[in-house]
Amino acid sequence: MIEASPFDPGKAYVAIDRHQNDDLGIYVYKTTDYGASWSRIGSGIPDGAFVRAVREDPKRKGLLYAGTERGIYVSFDDGANWRSLQLNLPNTPVHDLVVKNDDLVVATHGRAFWILDDVTPLRQFADSISGEDMHLYQPATAYRIHSEDAPRRHVFEGTNPPNGAVIYYYVKKAPKDEVKIEILDEAGVVIRNYSSKRVEPIDEPLDPDDKKPEKQIKPEDGLNRFVWDLHYEEAHRVPGYYLWEYGDGARGPLAVPGKYQVRLTCNGKSQTAAFEMKIDPRVMVSQADLEKQFKLQMDLREQLNRVYDAVNQIQDVREQLDGLKKRLGPSDSAKVLLDGANALDAKLIAARDPLINFTINASEDSLAYAPGIDGKLAFLSISIGAFADSAPTAAAYQEFDKLKKQTDELLAGWQQVRSVDLGTFQKLAAEQNVHSIYVPDAKSERVVGGGESGDEDQ
């Protein structure tokens, strides 16, 4: 088999198979002068692993792949040295291979076809990287595709590559301190962040036999892979509250095609790499329409943040009230304060319940109980962006305006309770020499989702 170099018309490679003549030698040759002379380039391929095919990567000159009787070998120096690229491929004869876009496709003898998804790290690899404490590879172009990972139904089916931007990084030794991966837009603004100390948020309460949520980043010694799902940061969360519409409706919108960056922070050092995200090549839609879709979904996310921030504030105040009521004694003055606390708590619940329905504590409960305003906002977000790439309809804008007006009115009710009723109770508490109630800030780490240091916030 002869392989012509895509970079140099005078260069070619040839693999010669003589095993049917009882000759298991490694016969791989290279010419740089149109075949006038040939040099042998099989160093590193073990005896007996005779070569059937050799290919040069079309995007990196001198990066060669060899299909042998015992699997795959790779050379980063135009065949001068070879090393195994076996990974999880069985020890099997490889009769042919081809580089298709960013993937290496392998035809084995009796072990089906195998595909090594995304050879980007191989194209950027250098021996010097192994001496670095960490190294961030530049991600390949990502594509904005509406598709979920399909469940595997048969043992003989292959697994599709992950959807999103695939990020590779190397760490010599898995760090014990926090590792952070941040996604930035072209202007350098952080739009999504992940941490090795934060767990993935859950969509519904866990059963006793369910697997515990995993860390967002799980660095291991050597090469690591991380996938950004192309979504912006999700809406803030309310602990212990689960809504079916939350899954996609409160999820951050899909990013629009354009240029982005990824920043890796490890052991106090950071590295940044740029990459591009493109639209699904099968989709014919203008950038302007996608930006309209994105803008409306971001506006909906902001309304959800306002709702959930208010709910978290209300719940925090109610917890403080509950603790206060437990500390009060049996005196007449304490009864006055207790009655005031109960009255304030009732007003807090009345302000909260139209925002979200706390009866919903599992994803299917919204089928039985009417969600609050948050469910309507989340469902509108789903209808706008979860299924297609297109500009929002006039009806979607009208519905958003209506829901925003309702949200403003409901949050005005909470502000009334906060400024008037809470002030009245604090005055009553001060008269009884009891510490006042504190309203927390609108946003905190526990509201964003996934605690800073383990599973307890879940």
Q: Biggest β-sheet: count, sense, barrel?
A: 5 strands, mixed
Instruction: Give the tally of β-strands.
Output: 19
The N- to C-terminal Cα distance equals: 58 Å
**Which stretches are low in confidence, meaning pLDDT under 50 for 5 or more residues running?**
444-458
Structure report:
The protein is α+β, with helices and mostly antiparallel strands and 458 residues long. Among the domains are: 1-118, TolB, C-terminal domain (Neuraminidase, 6 Propeller); 288-448. Helices cover 28% and strands 22% of the residues. The protein has helices at residues 120-124, 246-249, 287-327, 332-352, 373-385, 394-431, 445-448; strands at 2-4, 12-16, 27-31, 39-40, 51-56, 64-68, 71-75, 83-84, 94-100, 103-108, 113-116, 134-136, 142-144, 165-171, 180-185, 190-195, 222-228, 258-266, 269-279. Strands 13-19-18-15-16 form a five-stranded mixed β-sheet, with no helix packed on it. A four-stranded antiparallel β-sheet has the order 1-2-3-4, with no helix packed on it. It has a four-stranded antiparallel β-sheet with strand order 5-6-7-8, with no helix packed on it. The longest helix is centred in the C-terminal third of the chain and has 41 residues, at 287-327. The protein is elongated and about 105 Å long.
Which features characterize this protein?
458 residues, alpha+beta, four-stranded antiparallel β-sheet, 28% helix, disordered C terminus
Compact description:
By secondary structure, the protein is α+β, with helices and mostly antiparallel strands. Among the domains are: 1-118, TolB, C-terminal domain (Neuraminidase, 6 Propeller), CATH 2.120.10; 288-448. The chain has helices at residues 120-124, 246-249, 287-327, 332-352, 373-385, 394-431, 445-448, and strands at 2-4, 12-16, 27-31, 39-40, 51-56, 64-68, 71-75, 83-84, 94-100, 103-108, 113-116, 134-136, 142-144, 165-171, 180-185, 190-195, 222-228, 258-266, 269-279.
